[in-house]
Amino acid sequence: MQEKTIHQEISLPLLTEKQVSLTIKREDLLHPLISGNKFRKMKYNLIAAKSKGFDTLLTFGGAYSNHIAATAYAGKLHGFKTIGIIRGEELSKKWEANPTLKLASEHGMQLKFISREDYRDKENPSYLKKLQREFGSCHMLPEGGTNALAVQGCQEILTHEDADFGVICCAVGTGGTLAGIINASHENQHVLGFPAVKGDFLTEDICKFASKGRWKLITKYHFGGYAKVSTELIDFVNDFRQKTQIPLDPIYTGKMVFGILDLVQQDYFLPNTKILAIHTGGLQGIVGMNILLKKNNKPLLNL
Ligand SMILES: Cc1ncc(COP(=O)(O)O)c(C=O)c1O
Predict the structure, then answer these.
(1) Atom nearest to 172 CA in ligand 1
(2) For FRET with 250, which of 150, 226, 258, 283 sits at 20 to 30 Å CA-CA?
(3) CA of residue 279 to ligand 1 center, whole Å
(4) To 5 degrees, how large is the angle CA 286–CA 233–CA 255?
């Protein structure tokens, strides 16, 4: 798989007016399913799983998880069995209507649905041992795929070609991708993380893996929390796609780019700042999100 991605500079009147440049690093183009940070997070995990002789990958996720979709596909591609532990028992009867889970199953993933209460134990060693007893020995990937090997992979998102950018922006779920970017950033660079989730736990989680200090979380663009979207956000994602030909996902990258442009509007960045925003993928989630939006009589995301 091609590991080098392209830079796409965005041309918008707001950016010209404020004399700020915004470039998107198209990690989403790495692969339709193992795209963006998923490819980076998986790379060293797959190498480790192979070298330790595991034939199965086991991981955790919610109904629309990009990580579940990517693990299923990467497993199939590299000869691993895959098991997905999915949050929400209620899905066991209707999962085939969920495009992410259906795709994961079509790629060979065995799905196990557990209650939200049991799901809270997903990092508890005794629960993990129980899963090992049930499924045999396997390489376990935590929710969102973040572990030390994933962070090592995410360090490869930034390369010497990015050295010229003063600000690097990335969407944040568990914080593993941001930690990799922080570790790979240059001394002249500031790293901004845009959490797509609500909560104060992220700084501590990021500090477990990040080894440098020039970073900050911009916490006001989560739109109510994980997978919560508003009509304003949907309109923004559709409008941005129409003007730039770049598709964004509504859960992560849409919120980040909305936030960046809002900060530009508010003169958060000095004139001549060069911003690099990482497109971490997640586009497989659009179809599932549209099903939810349609149910709620909201405008849909353009495909
Ligand atoms: C498309 C996309 N972007 C960004 C992120 C955030 O990554 P992380 O969990 O490493 O913070 C995720 C989460 O998995 C994602 O699916």
Answers:
(1) 11
(2) 150
(3) 10
(4) 80
Written as six digits, the tokens of 128 are 């993990």
Tell which residue, 288, 230, 219, 276, has the closest CA to residue 254.
Answer: 230
Query: Which residues line the pocket of ligand 1, CB cutoff 6 A?
Result: 36-37, 66-67, 144, 146, 171-178, 249, 252, 280-282
Q: What angle do CA 205, 179, 35 make, to 5 degrees?
A: 110
* DSSP characters over 271-293: TT-EEEEE----TTHHHHHHHHH
Confidence of residue 79 (pLDDT cuts 50, 70, 90): very high
* Ligand 1 centroid from CA 280, angstroms: 7
Q: What is the DSSP letter of 298?
A: P
Q: What is the pLDDT of residue 5?
A: 86
Q: What is the pTM of this model?
A: 0.96
Q: What is the pLDDT of residues 248-274, one digit of tens each?
A: 999 999 999 999 999 999 999 999 999
